[in-house]
Amino acid sequence: MTRKDRWLLWIFLAPSLGLIGLFLYWPMVGTVIESFYATSFISPNPEFVGFDGYREVFSDRDFDDVFWNSIAWTLGVVVFQNMLGFLAAMLLNQGLPFRGVTRALVLMPFVLPGVVTAILWRFMYDPQLGLVNSLMIRTGLASETSAWLANPDTAMAAVIFVAVWKGFPFSMLIYLAALQTVDRSQLEAATLDGAGPLRRLWDVTLPAIRHVILVNVVLTLILTFNYFDIVWVMTRGGPQQATHIFPTKIYETGFGQFRFGEAATYGVVSILVLAVLVALYVIVQAGANRRGRRT
Amino acid sequence: MRQTAATRATLIACQLLLAAFVLLPFFWMISVSLKPATEPFAIPARLWPEDPTLANYVTAFRPEFRTYFLNSVIVSGASVAITVSLGLLAAYSFTRGQLLAVTALMSAVVLAQMFPHSAIIIPIYRMMRAADLLNTYTSLIAAYVSVTLPVAIWMLRGFLMKLPVSLEEAAAIDGAGPLRIFWDVVVPLARPGVIATAVYVLIVTWQEFLFALSFTSTREMRTLPVGLNDFIGQYGIRYGELMASSVMVSVPVIAVFFVLQRYFVAGLTAGAVKG
């Protein structure tokens, strides 16, 4: 494109930037503004309350529950999703028979719609009809059936398990691609030096793809923190708030109870948490780019 | 790499276990969808029904379901077409524009993919209400195009960066204008990227739940994920029909994915691994 065609660049950019500005950036500002107003089902007209809304939300016990649930949910999903994804990628990188077919099949949960995943697993966990209880009894892991989703002690773990099942194929895909970039001659040299598989993993493979792992972990932290559909359809945040995370709490407060101001306050807090994660992402990504240029 | 027979056997067993872990719920979903309503659930569960039947599918394919399906096709189809078109134009500018402002804007686009939808939905809802667009296809398509554009632009840019500029320069020397170059040179070469991006947008929009749940208020406008969520209450524990509906919701997107996964996997991993 020549210098005099510069104007065309901006015309090409305009529709996308306009939509992203209008429906992604402007609403971020809108949420902050909204959080300073109070609305309810009875008085739907926004009334300015300043920081009172924040004081109320912070002194509410629900807030602590939602905050700690979100941390447990996000860390639980991210740790297990990345570990399982990495192990599966290592496995499919071994040159075993049928690895192409296995890779394609393993990707299926990633494509399965979230609501379908949630309904299917609600059914899997069903105390009377579900396969989970049935299998656990048959294999001797449990002696009686449990209502996994109805028990506040097990509901969060049960939902995390489903999110890991659906999410690990994505991590696997990224790690598999990364593993294929590892220098084979270095691996062979390490083998000649007498390094076993674990040594090779630790000394050659992990350092080589460290930046991919870091970027991917932080990206899944962000996406998991924003997750809504599986949790909402499986538990509605229950039982007794045991699985209420920021997105479900915001939806329930805003669209269930029409308390838009309070919902927006939760929204602003979740944006602040995300800002920390995004800052982490930018730092990690910058580090990865520097490394990429060096090698 | 050399492996002993025992290591190899263990690894193959692990691979089978991995496949089973992933596939068992799918198998169960299909099995229950084929179970006659009269056949009771047994404990421990039977893995395959005694007399498989398609009756659940016939019942589940009721008029409501067809409406939801049509709505999903319209909303996802329009979103794919619009996002990919606008995204390709933007990605082209982001690839070929050497301005500092363009680089800064690209960072802003990448950042936008991380915004929490639950936190921004209330202002968007108010905007749609003010424009009298709630409960319309337009509100959903506008939201879907906006939320899928950042990743779409990022994926397409990854593809365009690999295209040699020399082809465009050669066309310019032949006297082709910038629009002609874009249409005749760039668009055909970008085809694999366009396909990968289209698959991404389809996967995201076909299952989108939060916006569809908040913006649609009548059965006539519901999309499949919201309709399916409604079925939980309506059908009670008629799991056979629920699973048959679930299969019918999932098959189109899984089929498209299997046919085009080569493009999609390449598109997704290229940028992610390179960083």
TrEMBL record, chain A:
Q: What family is it from?
A: Belongs to the binding-protein-dependent transport system permease family.
Give the membrane topology: Multi-pass membrane protein
- What Pfam families does the record point to? BPD_transp_1
Assigned GO CC terms: plasma membrane
Q: What is this protein called?
A: Sugar ABC transporter permease
What keywords were assigned to this record?
A: Cell membrane, Membrane, Transmembrane, Transmembrane helix, Transport
Organism from which the protein derives: Histidinibacterium lentulum
Q: What residues does the ABC transmembrane type-1 domain cover?
A: 67-281
Q: Which PROSITE patterns match?
A: ABC_TM1
> Where does the UniProt annotation locate this protein?
Cell membrane
Q: Name one GO biological process term.
A: transmembrane transport
Automatic annotation (TrEMBL), chain B:
Q: Which UniProt keywords apply?
A: Cell membrane, Membrane, Transmembrane, Transmembrane helix, Transport
User: What InterPro entries does UniProt report for this protein, alphabetically?
Assistant: BP-dep_ABC_trans_perm, MetI-like, MetI-like_sf
* Protein's UniProt keywords contain Transmembrane: yes
User: In its UniProt record, which GO terms are filed under biological process?
Assistant: transmembrane transport
What stretches pass through the bilayer?
12-30, 68-92, 99-125, 137-160, 242-260
Gene Ontology CC? plasma membrane
- Residues forming the ABC transmembrane type-1 domain are 69-260
In the bilayer, the protein is annotated as: Multi-pass membrane protein
Family annotation (Pfam families): BPD_transp_1 (PF00528)
The source's superkingdom equals Bacteria
Family indicated by similarity: Belongs to the binding-protein-dependent transport system permease family.
Q: What's the protein called, per UniProt? A: Carbohydrate ABC transporter permease
Q: State the species of origin.
A: Histidinibacterium lentulum
Q: What lineage, starting at the top, does this entry show?
A: Bacteria, Pseudomonadati, Pseudomonadota, Alphaproteobacteria, Rhodobacterales
